[in-house]
Amino acid sequence: xxxxxxxxxxxxxxxxxxxxxxxxxxxxxxxxxxxxxxxxxxxxxxxxxxxxxxxxxxxxxxxxxxxxxxxxxxxxxxxxxxxxxxxxxxxxxxxxxxxxxxxxxxxxxxxxxxxxxxxxxxxxxxxxxxxxxxxxxxxxxxxxxxxxxxxxxxxxxxxxxxxxxxxxxxxxxxxxxxxxxxxxxxxxxxxxxxxxxxxxxxxxxxxxxxxxxxxxxxxxxxxxxxxxxxxxxxxxxxxxxxxxxxxxxxxxxxxxxxxxxxxxxxxxxxxxxxxxxxxxxxxxxxxxxxxxxxx
Amino acid sequence: xxxxxxxxxxxxxxxxxxxxxxxxxxxxxxxxxxxxxxxxxxxxxxxxxxxxxxxxxxxxxxxxxxxxxxxxxxxxxxxxxxxxxxxxxxxxxxxxxxxxxxxxxxxxxxxxxxxxxxxxxxxxxxxxxxxxxxxxxxxxxxxxxxxxxxxxxxxxxxxxxxxxxxxxxxxxxxxxxxxxxxxxxxxxxxxxxxxxxxxxxxxxxxxxxxxxxxxxxxxxxxxxxxxxxxxxxxxxxxxxxxxxxxxxxxxxxxxxxxxxxxxxxxxxxxxxxxxxxxxxxxxxxxxxxxxxxxxxxxxxxxx
Lengths: 295, 303
Fold this sequence. Notes:
The complex is a heterodimer.
Chain A: H1 2-6, H2 36-62, H3 73-79, H4 82-115, H5 121-133, H6 136-146, H7 159-187, H8 191-200, H9 205-216, H10 218-233, H11 237-241, H12 247-257, H13 261-294
Chain B: H1 2-6, H2 8-12, H3 21-29, H4 33-54, H5 65-70, H6 73-105, H7 111-124, H8 130-140, H9 145-154, H10 168-192, H11 196-204, H12 209-237, H13 241-247, H14 254-264, H15 270-299
Helix pairs in contact in B: 4-15, 6-10, 6-12, 7-10, 8-13, 10-12, 11-12, 12-15, 14-15
């Protein structure tokens, strides 16, 4: 066993620092074209070019607004545009409302299913994955048919009603991510024991959820929340078809009417996505730190 | 959370659950009532409404005429472009994503590169839609950075060579920006699941690296690869915003036709719009079904 384990590596004098197991019996330290390591670097560099050129291009383009020199004029124009301020704050408020709604729907459900209806879990999970299967444009088409002014629940009749419909639509789009995040969080804690312990101390369901379960899965909820934020802030189809003044339709309008400002908007949107993902990583790291400390 | 408080009384009976389940069901179900109501009202009913609409005449009678209307050049054309676009962008996304993932997991690159790639993939797979289109216009568009640089430094005129971002090729190139990272995110765990012992066993039997990949690794990875392909297919099939921001409406793909139809009944028959939406559900549904089935097969090896 030991001999067989070692024999293929025998020709190699010692492990290359940071490298995985020897790729082939004929490997040498001198890089040659047959070595996977060379190809790996080539793949990596090509990937780097493909993924970073558009980011550099986008940034460079956004600086070109003034003829002959680089400037932040495009950003200045965008940030001072009242339309930008209005649509961006609309989308931020929308994203925050969606997060609250999503947490209120998902957290109690995931908790309850784990505690009382475990056999229902695959079915609930299936439903939460449906928004990945049904294209968003079809879902919003359904909303327009179902909740138009001549229907039983005329939500699109008023601006507020449409806002609420849009919020529920966003909650639907983010449902797969939110549910997965919360359910993964719940898996790491003993829901049954925590609930019984709380009950035996006289806690009601509100206390159990708000003061026992939520704090324990806060990091998972935050991950879901940041992802929801990133999704909602740049969303286009739902907002455009429901005729709401959100950031996504504003970006498309700018794309058709301005030259350099769209690139500046893209940089802003990309920064927001990065920030959200960064915050998810940060939250996850902090939670690991906490877990270790607690033990 | 108030509905939870309402269920308190249900719990005292909770202990006796297996014995008297039929009696207790209604109270336990209150706990998922909000979720059920939400899913029915904002996910299931709207979809059903579209699906049923596809089988109805404007007067409400049953018909297959709308579906038959799908098989006219006016609709088949865009659907075909959409399917080609999704097939090609999913295929190339799988290929390049696999190469990148293999490079960081198996290729002996420093571990720091791996974690950087995973983080970046998490961001890039979410960086779709309108901003992505703008980034590509700023890079490969008529005045884009790469277009200008190639012209100034090497005298290569992309436009003269027949490249145009606002075409099918440009759309594939743009879609790859979120397809490749998605592939990397999904396939890296699968590559990690390839056990070191398999490679060592193959090598001790005298296999070359290529033989190992062809005869051991790829057969094991096959279901994961096909499954992810199906997921990437569905992912690009439903995408609208990127294509609209990139091409305006000059390239007719199925979601753009549907978008125009919802906005202003361009097809001249509202129920044909339902049929187009139904066709999209069927295609993404089939792709996802393939993903689920193949994933179940793939997981056998990853325990």
